[in-house]
Amino acid sequence: MIEAEGLTKFYGPRGAIRNVSFEIDKGEVVGFLGPNGAGKSTTIRILTCYMPPSSGTARVEGLDIIEDSLRIREKIGYLPESVPLYKELTVRRFLRFAAGSKGVEAKKIRSEVSRVISACGLEKTANREIGNLSKGFKQRVGLAQALLNNPSVLILDEPTIGLDPTQIIEIRRIIEELREDRTILLSSHILPEVAQICRRVIIINKGEIVATDSPANLTSQLQKTATIVLEVSGPSAEFAQALENMSGVQKISMESNGTSKFEIETDPSVDIRPEIAALAMQKGCGLLELKKMQLSLEDVFMQLVTEESTVEGAES
Ligand code: ADP
Fold first, then answer.
1. Given this model, what pLDDT does residue 286 score?
2. Which atom of ligand 1 is nearest to the CA of 81?
């Protein structure tokens, strides 16, 4: 479990995050989403006890980030944005070294290293030097390092940054397998990634939390109008006129090119598709397409980060 309460951080006079509060329950996988410079890494560095906040508090598994920082470091698996790897070591040697420094008991190091090697699909690369691995495999080594000691809380900062699509799918699959019984906070500036892995998203912009909800709820809350796409056979002025007069319709645009295509903006609280279908039948128009457009998380994100207020002095 992670609890952040009013976290604020200044770098000199510069405000990086302000009054950041959220809770992540055990077993939840939460996306921490925001554009570059929003304050994701700053928040994560505070939660992982790499630096203290200017004010505010946070607890990880009930332990205070200031008073119990050493115990928290043992409990957390942390994948930083750029993983410090020893390039001249083999994967296995590096992981043995990391296990030792993470407090894994000497007699358990061998089995613990084998466990994380297998969890991250590193069996075939275990005896290769890290410096010779592709970026995707280096990222797996970083993830394997984070999994040593079987932490109940995983904090992953931009885990797929710089990877190609195949590597992204692989890392995503590994994260999916890790979700059971763990609290995972995953930061990203890439929306589809967060929408695919996380059931809840915390959006941060210019140092402040601007929304926290499931991707689906965020989308529906921000949807001020719903758009219906309609295509009927043949041109029909009478049908278009009747559509315009239908209750619930706010705006219509039409394009005729053999068939008639409409984009209809409506009140999102009512679904008028059944009435539209009935009208098409009544006017003798063949119904070719009738669907409701969904606002993507990308649209929601853009709406949030362009509408909300800013932290004074923070970078835009
Ligand atoms: P993100 O991880 O979302 O890209 P960061 O937490 O890295 O954002 O940065 C938040 C803000 O703090 C930015 O304005 C950034 O320029 C500033 N910042 C980050 N690290 C430092 C630092 N070490 N010294 C001064 N300013 C910093």
1. 92
2. 2
- 21, 204 contact by CB (below 8 A): no
> Cβ distance 295 to 222 under 8 Å?
yes
Rounded-to-integer distance, Cα 90 and Cα 245, Å:
71
Note the pLDDT of residue 106: 93
Which atom of ligand 1 has the smallest separation from the CA of 12?
25
Q: What is the pLDDT of residue 316?
A: 36
Q: CA–CA separation, 19 vs 39, rounded Å? A: 12
Looking at residue 2, its pLDDT comes to 96
Choosing among 3.30.70.3190, 3.40.50.790, 2.40.30.170, 2.30.29.170, the CATH entry for 224-293 is 3.30.70.3190
Q: Measured between alpha carbons, how far is 262 from 253 in angstroms, rounded to an integer?
A: 6
Tokens of 21: 């509060």
Ligand 1 atom 27 nearest Cα: 11
Mean pLDDT of all residues in the chain? 88
User: Binning pLDDT at 50, 70 and 90, where does residue 167 land?
Assistant: confident
H/E element holding 145? helix 135-147
CATH superfamily of 2-220: P-loop containing nucleotide triphosphate hydrolases (3.40.50.300)
* CB of 39 sitting under 6 A from ligand 1: yes
For the residues 7-27, what does the mean pLDDT come to?
A: 95
Beta-carbon neighbour count of residue 67 at 10 Å? Answer: 11
The whole-model pTM stands at 0.76
Share of the chain above pLDDT 70, in %: 94
205 in contact with ligand 1, CB cutoff 6 A: no
Atom of ligand 1 nearest to the CA of 207: 10
Band of residue 307 on the pLDDT scale cut at 50, 70, 90 = low
Q: For residue 229, what are its two tokens?
A: 């796409």
Question: Under a CB-based contact definition with an 8 Å cutoff, are residues 10 and 199 in contact?
Answer: no
| 202 ligand 1 Cβ < 6 A | no
Residues 6 or more apart whose Cβ sits within 8 Å of residue 173: none
